[in-house]
Write a structure and sequence with these properties.
Layout lengths: L6 E2 L2 E2 L4 E3 L9 H13 L4 E3 L15 H13 L6 E6 L1 E2 L2 E2 L3 H15 L4 E6 L8 H13 L3 E7 L3 H14 L4 E5 L13 H8 L3 E2 L25 H5 L5 H17 L3 H10 L8 E3 L6 H5 L8 H10 L2
Parallel strand pairs: 3-4, 3-12, 4-5, 5-8, 8-9, 9-10, 10-11
Antiparallel strand pairs: 1-2, 6-7
Protein name: Aldo/keto reductase
InterPro entries: AKR, AKR_Detox_Biosynth, NAD(P)_OxRdtase_dom_sf, NADP_OxRdtase_dom
Pfam families: Aldo_ket_red (PF00248)
């Protein structure tokens, strides 16, 4: 595997995780294979998915993204070069985080991904009906069996996160090494604050989702421009806010000055933030991949980071 400075546990990861939420949804099998080929061919090695993708599509059962990634790996080989991250807790047939549910969901994900281990296994959404002790113990068993290498957490309140980490430390169980949080230039309070503080104290690697705000931070959403996307309504809403417009203005200026695409700058700001190791961004077409990969080459200056931070306040 190529040497990257970005690490999650002992995993060397590319500084941009390719989001698999579109695979089997807005990108069919052929398009998904092409995107994965372009990402891996450009040096990327970190693919993020979940067992529930794309259960929200009529006629889908969930797990389609994992299946496509598994088929791609089987067709292309190179499993040892790739870092696979998936999630548990939201699949229609495996909802929640009871110990038995985690076990069954992990086995199903392994089958769909056609692999013998999951490199990074996240709890997708916290389950308040289950004690953190039960959740961590179930995940720990998977780690001890070699079916999971590292565990991560997403969508959890700070108090439950701290309780989980304390239990792992006290009992010598597997401990979360990564946190996925909604975080980008137009959504900062979803991570900054208690979650970021805990991540810093426990050396958790932040892997932000919605890194491009459902496409808004690509720059394609402009006043009077109609965008054909399943996420257009959600992304376009940011145009109606002063912060959204300010952020776009500064992104445009820096992108023009540096000669790089707008989304590259937005992702580079995330990479410059404390605890962030690799933001997540998805690509529906091959044409969208180069701007994502380019973040590995772009280091914003302190002045550029501050301009974006001020615009997004």
């Amino acid at each position: 595997m190529a040497e990257f400075k970005n690490k999650i546990g002992d995993l060397d990861v590319y500084p941009l995780a390719l989001g698999g939420n579109v695979f089997g949804w807005t990108a069919d099998r052929e398009e998904s294979f092409a995107v994965l080929d372009a990402y891996a061919g450009g040096g990327g090695n970190f693919v993020d998915t979940a067992d529930t993708y794309s259960a929200w599509v009529e006629g889908h059962r969930g797990g389609e993204s994992e299946e496509i990634i598994g088929e791609w790996l089987a067709a292309r080989g190179g499993r040892d070069r790739m870092v696979l991250a998936t999630k548990v807790g939201a699949h229609p047939e495996h909802r929640g985080l009871a110990a038995g549910t985690i076990r069954a969901a992990a086995e199903a994900s392994l089958r769909r991904l056609r692999t013998d281990r999951i490199d990074l296994y996240y709890t997708h959404t916290d389950d308040l009906t289950v004690p953190v002790e039960e959740i961590i113990t179930a995940l720990d068993e998977l780690v001890r069996e070699g079916k999971v290498r590292h565990i991560g957490v997403s969508n959890i309140e700070p108090e439950r996160l701290e309780a989980s980490l304390a239990f792992s430390d006290r009992e010598g169980k597997a401990k979360y090494v990564a946190i996925q949080a909604h975080y980008n230039l137009v959504s900062r309070d979803t991570y900054e604050g208690a979650r970021m503080r805990i991540a810093r104290e426990h050396a958790l690697a932040a892997v932000p989702y919605y890194g491009l705000a459902s496409g808004f931070l690509t720059g394609k959403y402009r006043a009077g421009v109609r965008v054909d996307s399943a996420r257009a309504k959600k992304a376009g809403a940011h145009l109606g806010t002063e912060r959204g417009r300010k952020v776009l203005d500064v992104l445009d200026e820096i992108a023009a000055d540096r000669g790089v695409p707008v989304p590259t700058v937005a992702l580079a700001w995330l990479l410059a933030r404390p605890t962030v190791v690799a933001p997540i961004a998805s690509a529906r077409t091959v044409r969208q991949v180069p701007a994502l990969l380019k973040v590995a080459e772009l280091a914003l200056t302190a002045e550029e980071v501050e301009r974006l931070t001020a615009a997004s306040a």
